[in-house]
Amino acid sequence: MKKILFTFLLVGLTLNAITLNIAVATNVSYAIQELQSKFKQIHPDIKINIILGSSGKLTAQISHGAPYGLFMSANMLYPQKLYEQKLATTKPRVYAKGTLALFSTRERDFSLGIKLLQENAIHKIALANPKTAPYGQAAFEALQTSKMYTEIQTKLIFAESISQTLSYVVTAADIGFVASSSLYTAKMSLYKKGKHWEEVDPSLYQPIEQGVVLLSFAKDTKAYRLFYEFLLSPEAQKIFKKYGYII
């Protein structure tokens, strides 16, 4: 009896010891809790440790040996680089497509589209760093495509990540380019589409295809594979759609 009890305890300890270190682009921070909860219902013995950051910074950390087993990027470029460097064991796969929105805490005339940024009442425009954040790169592309960058570049203030951009808009900027996913949370429900925010014309920037890869650190861990497959499942796709992603 003691031997059987000991065996059960040992198995329990082993299962509870499974913790996944997952690197996640900050635009997914709004959906990740619900994704975790759903995964936990299916696999209650697997814990998840989320590391948030801009895709560029997370890629640099992975390249320098950070022990992450799975990477959810905000684009396909960074996962592809890791795959080419043999730091990823799977080719990048698109798990969702992100969209860009203009957001202000004050009501604005969003019927003007991106031309709204030319108004004299707009003094500070927040966006993520285009060099490390794919959503920042998309915002930069939108400004260039609309031939507005030169005119409004003195108004721009740069955040480290897309989630920090949202904080800037709430605290310091008049308006900003944010991930549409951030506007579908309960916390942001007081801000209304058409009054406080509107999606940026998608023809102004390249589609934000978000890629996922299993990393070399996870090659012997079946639990990482389970979460990887979950992200591509219909259950996870429903959650992504709920937060404004395109599937």
Give a written overview of the molecule.
With 247 residues, the chain is α/β, with parallel strands linked by helices. Helices cover 37% and strands 20% of the residues. It has nine helices and ten strands. The strands form two sheets. The protein has a five-stranded mixed β-sheet with strand order 2-1-3-10-4, with helices on both faces. Strand 1, helix 2 and strand 2 form a beta-alpha-beta unit. Helix 2 runs antiparallel to helix 9. The longest helix has 15 residues. It is globular, with a radius of gyration of 20 Å. The termini are far apart.
The class by helix and strand makeup works out as alpha/beta
| Helix proportion | 25-40%
Q: Quote the distance from N terminus to C terminus.
A: 52 Å
Proportion of beta-strand residues:
15-25%
Cα shape: globular
Uncertain segments are 1-15
Number of strands: 10
Read across the widest sheet, the strand sequence of neighbours is: 2-1-3-10-4
The average pLDDT is: 92
- The H/E string reads HEHEHEHEEEHHEHEEEHH
